Structures are given as structure tokens and as C-alpha cells.
Amino acid sequence: MISGLKDIINDFDTFILDQWGVLHNGGDAFPNAVATLEFLQQHHKKVVILSNSGNTHNFSYQRLTDSGIRRDLYIDVLTSGDHMRHNFKQGKFDHLGTNALVFGWGEGINGTVLEDCGLTSVVIEEASFIMCYGVERGTVADYQIDLDIAFARGLEMVVSNPDLVAMRPDGGLNLCPGSIAMAYADMGGTVYWHGKPQAQIYAMCHTLLGGWDNAIAVGDSLEHDIRGANTAGIASLFLTTGIHADDLTAKMANKEYTNDDDLVADLSREFDVMPSHYIDWFQVD
């Protein structure tokens, strides 16, 4: 465990930050976030935000600004939505056709995704694949009928946001597209994943920054942030106050731990990952 980034500031030249759970939860920036970003800037560190958002980096610029995080405090943002659009433009999904059954957040945003990727939104009977971009329905079960029909037709799925859940400003959890995609994969359906923990997005991040000597990824998801860092062969810093906070509390209630290291290691093993360091909040000390 570290108390703050001051403990490791001299070990790394590059800090790859998750957005939700590290800098904010959809509302105002966390109390220490701006000061910690300023601390990294004062020490001349490369800072990039790597976000499992189905939107583009341009959308993240505005969300970060609205939260109180200045644009000069980070080099750039790279999102899973950017990753997906990159693969469409590179022709990776030409074999899927352009008629998509869209699982999205809303008509306006869906329109942007469809235009960016050269797609047409159609009913399931006319679809050549599924574009899983958002969660408008309440639960995964609300998508099951469509998933059953799609699976019977052999449709493949492209998912732009692999997160299973995301924290709300009130501390609750919202369902994310990754939960739908995971259900389809569990059925035996083919799913094309984007964002963390896919190796390609870390390679894109490396190119974006012009390389690094020693990088560390900071995030609150063992499945995405820490697994992604492990896959990319870089160090990681796990925030215990994010989406796994309840998991850690539950484990403490069911088993006695002699120290927090054992607790975090025990939960990490359940995901078959291991963070280099862990911390409560994104903070200097």
C-alpha cells in the first residue's frame, strides 16, 4: 500500500489514468484529483487518460472540463470508443456489413456512432451484426429476447465499452454495455471487445505519447485497469474506493485478515491479476 503518489513519483515517467472512479464518478472531480494532477505536472510526468467510454475523446474533454479538471493537466484522452472507431476505419469489421442492431444510450448519440462507423440502424430481422454501445433498458434480462434471436441467426457483436458497471456520483452502480456483451459471450456468441484490458489500446496509447520508459496505470477496476496493465507489461496502482469497495468490505466481513495487503491480494487472485501498488484515493499523500 502507498499513502499517495509522492511515494512512487520518482519511479515512473508516465501515468495512465482511468477516468471514472479515479478522477470523478460523473459529477464534480474528486476533492484531491486536481491537486494530484497538478503534482504530476509539476514533476514533468506524462499524463494520459485511458477511458472505457463508448464516446470519443472529444466528449471526454468536455466531461472532464465540466468536472473541474483543466485541459492543460493531461496530454490527451484515449477511449474505447476511439479504439472501436479506429478498427472500423481500418476495415477490421468489413465482413460484418453495415446493418446494425443497435444497443445504445439514445438516438442522438447513437446517430454519431453510426455516422462515424458508416452504419445503418435496423431491426433485428435485417441486422448483419450487433453494435453494443449503451444500455437504455434496465437490466441484461431486458435484452435477452434480442440476444436469443441474434444468437440463433449467428450474429456477431461489437462492443465499444467493455465495463460491466460504472459508479454514479451517489456511489451507486450503473449497468454498462460490457454486461450485455458478457452475457452474449457466455451464450457462445462472438464478441469483439474494445478498450481496457485489450492490448491494442495500450499500444495506441504508447504511440500517442511517443513512448515511455516506465509507465504505471491507475484505476479502480481489477478486470479492466489492472488486467490491462498486467497484459501490457506495465506497473499498476489499484484504487480500493472504486467499484470493488463493496467486494472488499464483504470479504472483510466474511474472513479475518491480518493486514490490508492480504485482503487486496485475496480479491485480486479472484480476478487472476495482481496490482503493483494500491491506495484508497487518487491523492498526493
Q: How is the biggest beta sheet arranged? A: 6 strands, parallel
Spatially, the strands of the biggest sheet line up as 3-2-1-11-12-13
Series of H and E elements: EHEHEHEHEEHEEEHEHEHEHHE
Low-confidence stretches: none
CATH topology of the largest domain: Rossmann fold
What is the total number of structural domains? 2
What would CATH call the class of the largest domain? Answer: Alpha Beta
Q: What level of helicity do the residues show?
A: 25-40%
> What's the multimeric state?
single chain
The termini sit apart by 12 Å
What is Rg? 19 Å
**Beta fraction of the residues?**
15-25%
According to CATH, the homologous superfamily of the largest domain is HAD superfamily/HAD-like
Gross morphology is globular
User: Which architecture of the largest domain would the CATH scheme give at its second level?
Assistant: 3-Layer(aba) Sandwich
- Count of DSSP H/I helices: 10
Number of strands: 13
Mean pLDDT: 95
Structural class: alpha/beta
